[in-house]
Amino acid sequence: MSFLRSAAASTRHHARSVTVDAPARLHLGFLDPNGSLGRRFASLGLVIEGFEARLAVSAAARNAVEIGAGLGTVPGQDENRERIARYLDLLQRETGLETPLSLRLNAAPPPHSGFGSGTQLALAVGRAFCTWHGLEVPTRRLAAILGRGKRSGVGIAGFDRGGLLLDGGPGADGSAAPLLAHATFPAEWTVMLVLDERMDGLCGAAERVAMDALAPFPRALAADLSHQVLMRVLPAVIERDFEPFAAGVSHVQRLIGDYFAPAQGGSMYTSAAVGHMLEWLRGIEAAAIGQSSWGPTGFAILRSRAVAERVLAAARAAGVLDPALRVVLTTANNRGARVGLGAPALQRA
């Protein structure tokens, strides 16, 4: 009997309704894509406010997946509907709990844009399903059941904790990456997101082909990345020392971006317009600059909202911000996902 089936046997009553807000994350870089010491990847990531996947679950006459009216023009809604239905089917088969449910997606980030939308959606469905049935299932277990975390674990750990996270890369058996370090991110440091909604980042089969075609990652560069994160980025966040944090993340992004450039048209940025704006910003202000995952979303983390607003106004005045780009100012999420319960409260046999 599986863990979920064993847990299901002790459930007597379930919640009338459940809502889950799963936060987005920025992927700030891998430490060792080739695994020079035998363990591949390891990831640095930051959970952010905004761009949540918001899901509501309630009883139904038959399984149903709905997309909120406000999401009608968002790219990827058919893909999201298919994913939610597939995740629900997996969970029902794993647990043997086949009570029909209605799942309504009320908000979602743009897919394939660097926000970890697939993991958000999977974990939102998993946590809502388990909470509705009164099951206590660790997030890492849910991720494994739903096929998430095969490279990066920061979205999984970020779902539970938020903040800045460092994982150790997935295990040799495919298990989700262990969390190595977590830090509360300074609330005043402001994240400027630069979105190019005209394109998607690599995903699926195209991502696998691109990864396989890359040259071996030099061990010396993996050592440099690890040194930057361990002795520069993490201490700076803990001590709220902005400049070494910004310099460290930018250095990591430059090295890893150069490595992935052959899969991105020769640039560390998927979107040339995003790259043009951020490279201009690099020359005028201390900032942690780069691209989240395969992009096309780029980011600049600045020391305050006032600085971010000043820089954004200067970019517009200088004409370096393509009118087709969308810029969003936000902050870190230091709490992780939010789960809401409808009456009655969960009861256990």
From TrEMBL:
Presence of keyword Metal-binding: no
InterPro entries in the record: GHMP_kinase_C_dom (IPR013750), GHMP_kinase_N_dom (IPR006204), RFAP_synthase (IPR004422), Ribosomal_Su5_D2-typ_SF (IPR020568), Ribsml_uS5_D2-typ_fold_subgr (IPR014721)
Residues in GHMP kinase C-terminal domain copies: 235-319
Signal peptide feature range: none
Top-level division of the source organism's lineage: Bacteria
Keywords: Kinase, Transferase
Domain annotation GHMP kinase N-terminal: ranges: 85-153
Family annotation (PANTHER family): BETA-RIBOFURANOSYLPHENOL 5'-PHOSPHATE SYNTHASE, HOMOSERINE/4-DIPHOSPHOCYTIDYL-2-C-METHYL-D-ERYTHRITOL KINASE
Protein name: Beta-ribofuranosylaminobenzene 5'-phosphate synthase family protein
